[in-house]
């Protein structure tokens, strides 16, 4: 793995005493696994185990219900797990999986679904997966596809065009701010407003589609919508410089509130400001400036330290009202700030990102399962049932589930690339072992309901498609050399679903 020549920053981790975990799974453990090669192989085995279970019980469905061994369709029944698995299978060089995936995706009818379509989710999972598969298989991983199947790679781009064309009516609004919830049967939507993330996390995929096809309409549609976020109105919609509210009126383009942060519903807008600049510095310099504005405001106004060695990022209701709460979704912020701070020469922002990564690690290190919770808070006094835990750790859970989320290991990945500090490998391996202990089933992996219990409590019978796209990809890349990296000069940038896309000038 290639590391930047950046000095490592010494950090420490809160490590509360926790009850020992006793795994019911013998597939992964520390015995005999002593090298990065072995750890990468174990993570690849987890991918193959999940894929084989999905193929056996849920092929063509969006996800595997991994306890009851059935298929589920939460993403329109187009095979979301296949679209999300493709790019990871490429990086793992699993040729058989790649050929199976592109064979299926080449034939999906994206014009038909019985359920409402999310423009945001469909863009990041399906459109991103198709474009990434095309970029990877036309580039460094072309050898994975036999010559007689090469036509299927071209079909990925054809299918991406078909899907984007089908969703394009979403942008047919007075302002160009799209509807998010789409009814394909009537080409209409019930939406009167859209969210910051669901509006601002389209521009990378739709711009890449324009660049690949030479048709400017896809970039034009997404960038017109983005303009309302880059130039927000009214003033209350920007309570801190660069940090925005959450909901935008589709008819006027004006923000409807002043609440927000880096949490779900807002998070990936800020992520894409940086990543659009990485994608094309010559075209998107203004996006980098807006990202720097938001990152500076975050460091100045939103960072909180309930303990000397633990840093979290608060949410806000308005400029005067901070909310001392964070969620697993927010934990991508550590990697995002570290990456952007390094690329844009801000040591203050880079260091804040590494501090926030350490804070998210603390939530993993403190629980009986070794996995961080869905949500937590640090306001005092803590609820009675959490007072002892709060006194020991500086935070307490407000949502105890783990939904196979990737954000903490995503930040480990970025921090490792930027610093070369081997502790991030240790943290990533600890996370994988804990997730394997708590979440592995006979057919795949499942979300769990209570990470405060030694093995995560009851399994809740759902294997998210992003388990393939994000969790296993980031973990694998921590331990395996790859020419595909989000760092400047590598030629690649990851979308928010961790699908690598080729950058341009």
Task: Describe the model.
- The chain has 505 residues and is mainly alpha-helical.
- The chain has two domains: 220 residues, Glycosyltransferase (Alpha/alpha barrel), CATH 1.50.10.10; 188 residues, Glycosyltransferase.
- The strands form seven sheets. It has a three-stranded antiparallel sheet. Strands 12-13-14 form a three-stranded antiparallel sheet.
- Helix 2 runs parallel beside helix 16.
- The longest helix has 23 residues.
- It is globular.
List keywords for this structure.
45% helix, disordered N terminus, 505 residues, 3-stranded antiparallel beta sheet, mainly alpha, Glycosyltransferase, globular
Strand residue percentage: 5-15%
Rounded Rg: 21 Å
Report the average pLDDT across residues.
Answer: 94
Main sheet summary? 3 strands, antiparallel
Number of strands: 16
Q: Which class of secondary structure composition applies to the elements? A: mainly alpha
Shape: globular
Look at the structure and give the CATH class of the largest domain: Mainly Alpha
Strand order of the largest sheet: 3-4-5
Quickly count the helices: 16
| CATH architecture field of the largest domain | Alpha/alpha barrel
Number of domains: 2
Helix content: 40-55%
């Amino acid at each position: 793995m290639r590391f930047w020549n950046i000095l490592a920053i010494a950090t420490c981790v809160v490590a509360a005493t926790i009850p020992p975990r006793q795994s019911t799974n013998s597939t992964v453990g520390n015995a005999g696994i002593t090298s990065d090669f072995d750890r990468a192989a174990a993570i690849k085995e987890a991918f193959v185990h999940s894929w084989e279970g999905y193929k056996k019980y849920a092929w063509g469905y969006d996800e595997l219900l991994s306890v009851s061994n059935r298929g589920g369709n939460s993403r329109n029944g187009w095979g979301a797990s296949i679209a999300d698995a493709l790019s990871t299978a490429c990086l793992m060089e699993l040729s058989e999986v790649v050929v199976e995936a592109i064979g299926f995706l080449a034939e999906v009818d994206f014009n038909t679904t019985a359920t409402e379509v999310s423009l945001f989710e469909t863009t990041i999972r399906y459109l991103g997966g198709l474009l990434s598969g095309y970029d990877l298989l036309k580039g460094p991983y072309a050898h994975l596809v036999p010559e007689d199947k090469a036509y299927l790679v071209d079909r990925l781009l054809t299918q991406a065009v078909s899907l984007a064309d089908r969703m394009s009516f979403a942008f047919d609004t007075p302002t160009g701010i799209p509807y998010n919830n789409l009814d394909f049967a009537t080409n209409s939507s019930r939406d009167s407003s859209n969210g910051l993330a669901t509006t601002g996390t389209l521009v990378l995929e739709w711009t890449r589609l324009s660049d690949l096809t030479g048709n400017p309409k896809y970039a034009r549609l997404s960038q017109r919508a983005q303009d309302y976020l880059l130039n927000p109105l009214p003033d209350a919609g920007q309570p801190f410089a660069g940090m925005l509210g959450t909901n935008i009126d589709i008819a006027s383009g004006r923000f409807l509130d002043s609440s927000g942060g880096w949490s779900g519903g807002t998070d990936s807008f800020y992520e894409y400001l940086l990543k659009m600049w990485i994608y094309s510095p010559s075209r998107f310099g203004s996006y980098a400036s807006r990202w720097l504005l938001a990152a500076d405001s975050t460091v100045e106004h939103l960072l909180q330290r309930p303990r000397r060695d633990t840093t979290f990022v608060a949410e806000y209701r308005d400029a005067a009202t901070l909310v001392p709460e964070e969620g697993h979704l927010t934990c991508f912020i550590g990697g995002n700030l570290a990456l952007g701070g390094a690329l844009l020469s801000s040591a203050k922002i880079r260091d804040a990102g590494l501090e926030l990564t350490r804070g998210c690690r603390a939530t993993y290190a403190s629980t009986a399962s070794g996995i961080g919770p869905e949500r937590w808070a640090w306001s005092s006094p803590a609820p009675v049932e959490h007072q002892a835990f709060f006194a020991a750790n500086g935070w307490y859970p407000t949502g105890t589930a783990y939904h196979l989320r990737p954000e903490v290991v995503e930040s480990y990945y970025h921090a490792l690339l930027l610093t070369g500090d081997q502790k991030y490998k240790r943290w990533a391996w600890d996370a994988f072992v804990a997730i394997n202990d708590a979440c592995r089933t006979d057919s795949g992996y499942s979300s769990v309901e209570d990470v405060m219990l030694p093995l995560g409590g009851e399994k809740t019978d759902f294997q998210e498609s992003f388990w393939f796209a994000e969790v296993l990809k980031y973990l694998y890349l921590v331990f395996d050399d790859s020419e595909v990296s989000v760092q400047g000069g590598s030629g690649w940038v990851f979308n928010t679903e961790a699908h690598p896309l080729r950058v341009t000038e």
